[in-house]
Amino acid sequence: MAGTPNTSLPGPAPQDNGPGRLSRQDPRARWRIGRVVAGSMAAGLLAALLLVAAPFIRAQESEVTGAVLCGFTLGWAMLALLSVRFTNQPQRWAAAPALFMGAGGLLLVWFGSAVVQVLSWVWPPALLALVIWMVVRARRQLDSRSKGWLLYPVMAMLALTSIGGGYQAVSTAADAKAYPMPGQLIDVGGHSLHLNCTGSGSPTVVLQPGGGEMSSNHGWITPAIARDTRVCIYDRAGRGWSEPADTAQDATQIATDLHTLLHRGNVPGPYVLAGHSFGGLYVLTFAALYPDEVAGMVLVDSTAPAPSANPGAPSAAVRGGYDILDRVSALISTSARLGLGRLYAPFEAGSLPPRFRDEVRANIATPGNLRSTIDEYVQANTSMEEAASLRDFADKPLIVLTAGIGSDSKHLASQNELAGLSTNAAHRTIEGASHESLIAEEDGAATTTQAILDVVSSVRRGGPLVK
Questions:
Q1: Are the CB atoms for 298 and 451 separated by under 8 Å?
Q2: Residue 280 gets which letter from DSSP?
Q3: HEC-encoded secondary structure of 378-415
Q4: Which CATH number covers residue 433?
Q5: Structural domain of 260
Q6: Strands (E), 157-229
Q7: pTM of the prediction?
Q8: Domain count of the chain?
Q9: Mind listing the pLDDT tens digit for each residue in 146-159?
């Protein structure tokens, strides 16, 4: 009718797409962005775990770290792609962390340790700048509760990672300048070990640090012995100033490398060996392998050997079980590159002289020390079996020192058995001394030093120990 207003709404009529088909007004709005965020982050974590376990990834710190980064790359890439394709909140900025982590991961997997030193300086500031940019973009483009309870915490962890990594890189460089290597590096076949010999006289004393420890842990003992005879201290593979090794470091391998080190370092025998804790296993194995080169021995609260219950069975390393633990070890050691080792390092090293104490603390904070220490405990059962191969030390002087604090009847019995290896032996239980104080505290270290000098004196005289 003329003059009657048209009250119908403007716009095209709905399109009929056929029976059972509804019109698509916004095909991207089918998925909730919060689920996409959560699913992408979960997928990245799962991919990282699977890649770490993948057989084509070698159990080395650089490659395991690279595998983790490549896994996280998948998570960020999924967030970028799925949010663009299936939501109405495209998060294209997520492609940036995917590219950053992917590039770093591939470099580590492909080139290995060759790029670690360079990346240790580059990635912390680059990652921190990237995180700041990510926060800005997410704040502007993401309207979801997942931003507060998931993405922001992830970004905060990345920021802390970058700050810790930068602190570790700067501190490591400062430590290298502050604590130059004494002695020399000697190639023992595929890797070099640090050896430091001081003093003069015969026989030469060779000190073997305990589990997870380095040459500087003997800061009280080495100078005291050097006043009387020649003394050599060294760092096992991966700690102190020594390079890491690719081979499993069980007692036999450690003893073999030490033998090579002493010969290539022009340190002739016979030797008086002194081993603390796990170091006792290594000197026992050395004496079993090279009996003509060992004149005497001191076992300082040594870990007890344990004969194999099934001598014909292959070791864990041969069966392949060690590889799994080796991957875990490599993954854990990466945490030291984030500065985490420096959180507890100041509480270590007892009352060692200041310089030795600081060298020990600097070593504790390194990835190499953490990795080699974990590996040492992984190999503990094998090392105890190998140390049990020494069944007779004849009449060579042997002193067994046992800490009075913390020693139960089982430990005391094992120490008595060690003293029974020689007909020229003494077992001394040091009341008031703990396992570590026999090395790290001045009074305990003086007792250990005296025991070593007593064995040296017996070797020189060719007579029995003064008990």
A1: yes
A2: H
A3: HCHHHHHHHHCCCCCCCCCCEEEEEECCCCCHHHHHHH
A4: 3.40.50.1820
A5: 184-461
A6: 184-187, 192-198, 204-208
A7: 0.85
A8: 2
A9: 999 999 999 999 99
